[in-house]
Amino acid sequence: MSYTVFIKEKDQNSAERMEENMKLATVEDAVEYRLFLIPDEPRDAEKHKEILQKYIERIMTQFAPMLVHYIWQNQPFNLKYKPEKGGVPAHMFGMTKFGDNIEDEWFIVYIVKQITKEFPELVARIEDNDGEFLLIEAADYLPKWLDPDNSANRVFFYHGELCIIPAPRKPGAVSWLPTTPPTIPQALNIISTHPEKILASESVRAAVNRRIRGYPEKIQASLHRAHCFLPAGIVAVLKQRPRLVAAGVQAFYLRDPIDLRACRIFKTFLPETRIMTSVTFTKCLYAQLMQQRFMPDRRSGYRLPPPSHPQYRAHELGMKLAHGFEILCSKCSPHFTDSKKSPVTSSPLWAGFLDSLKKNDYFKGLIEGSAQYQERLEMAKNYFQLSVNRPESSVAMSPGEEILTLLQTLPFDIEELKKEEANLPPEDDDQWLDLSPDQLDQLLQEAAGKKDPEPISKEKEHYDLTQVSTSMKAFISKVSTHKGAELPRDPSETPITFDADSFLNYFDKILGPRPPESDSDDQDEEDFESLESDDDLDFETQEPGEEASVKGTLDDLKSYMAQMDRELAHTSIGKSFATQKQMESLAQITNSNSDEEDAAAGDSAMTPVDVDLNLVSNILESYSSQAGLAGPASNLLHSMGVQLPDNTDPRPTSKPAKD
């Protein structure tokens, strides 16, 4: 009876987990994050909700100085209360669509990590539509037992560190570890009772920390300031809501023919009101806007100067952004009213939120009532409305509705805005849009975890070609499974050895008679382990009959190999290999018995094949045929840490045949 109940509960949990994964998978480019309070003690539901709501207020307030000015690609970082459901305790939940800007996702990882550091009683879990993307980032350093099938509910942030709940090597070996992937309550209990035993390895933590290194200073480095020739209404809107530039860019970037109908004749942002201004983009938004080729409709009134004009780029950027804002406003109802929005200051949370901002020096000592103070205050109100005081039942205001609301409530003077044209800050250099091959290689090496990649020496005499042969031998000696072959991670750390006797012993183990039957599971494990260690192949422990049989099989195999060598020696295949011209091997063949001498006259001239020379020459030929492009030779060698210099030899050119 108890077993049946266990199966039903397990199936129910699996179905609920599958349902959540399917929901997240249907949302492309989205990240989900959950914050749990430990220890998970029984509490009254309403009281627990009140506690978590207080945490949301404290978190969003404490991180407000970092989040208020951040320009999100699609959606901002947000938290809301989520009640208990399906065995998952009540917690704080958030989901953000980051779109094409992957940096938004990793910034959220940094925020979540810092939250667990500032609030030690909180445990965080984060995943996206790819699943455990933190494990994907640290894939080169994960333990072998961890795979997508058993990684559910194992990865958390606690005390600002990445934690991975281990799995027992044998069922029941560790009493506090479940044999199956843990449920959320089990995971929270393990984290609270054994925090010192779940810390991820240093290499795994370093891989994730390397990806979020540089925050929060990195936020400024991800911005790009450019001059744009924009209608005055858009200039006034962006002064109050700099984040709306993302919605404008996305509307233009994802436009369709129906959207462009609204841009044949502009109704909201007339081209006659355009002025020069400075707009702050993220680098992702700027690149999306710059890489789009677009010519406006003649009826729109947006005409561009010739490309040689010094302000052509500012006119082009302004034209594209104006189209995006016009598209946003065209999607609003003509009878739109600002009935959805209530005053921020009427919220009971606003006073405490404002006091917390002042304690965290959000206003930077500005005089209350000054223009800069009011600008920061308006941004804080907007952040509060979106992230802190957003009721679950409320309908979010669309960007177009927000733009129209600002145009109705914001007084702005075009002449005053024109006066600011003379004092615009300089534009940022956009050379980062163009990557040289060396810069691309450096980025790829940094992504692979190499801190200081050594430049490839161009001098031939300083390059050791034995690295090619030794790395390839190390690759061949590795054990491959149905999951693929393992590549040597760092050939320079461990000496590479290739034991021919051990290699032949593998054949002895495979072709020899099977030992007496034992438990099938144990035997399979022993067989697999024997392939991973040469020390397990000890023939001294075999029975005399088994040893003789194995020796006979080995002799037969060697005989077959020698016969094939003799048959192929005088063919085009045999002549294609470079051989070792050693006098001692010729002397050994000359002193052999007369029967072998009469077998074939050419056998006396056979010399051993130079394996290293043939291996290196074939790989160099394959590498040269790639003509600098990616191919099997360069990919395989690069994965083993071997980089070949460029081929500076002149390529032979075919001459036309003469009649």
TrEMBL record:
<feature type="region of interest" description="Disordered">
    <location>
        <begin position="629"/>
        <end position="659"/>
    </location>
</feature>
<protein>
    <submittedName>
        <fullName>Protein SGT1</fullName>
    </submittedName>
</protein>
<dbReference type="InterPro" id="IPR010770">
    <property type="entry name" value="Ecd"/>
</dbReference>
<dbReference type="GO" id="GO:0005634">
    <property type="term" value="C:nucleus"/>
</dbReference>
<feature type="region of interest" description="Disordered">
    <location>
        <begin position="508"/>
        <end position="554"/>
    </location>
</feature>
<feature type="compositionally biased region" description="Acidic residues">
    <location>
        <begin position="518"/>
        <end position="546"/>
    </location>
</feature>
<dbReference type="Pfam" id="PF07093">
    <property type="entry name" value="SGT1"/>
</dbReference>
<feature type="compositionally biased region" description="Polar residues">
    <location>
        <begin position="584"/>
        <end position="593"/>
    </location>
</feature>
<feature type="region of interest" description="Disordered">
    <location>
        <begin position="584"/>
        <end position="605"/>
    </location>
</feature>
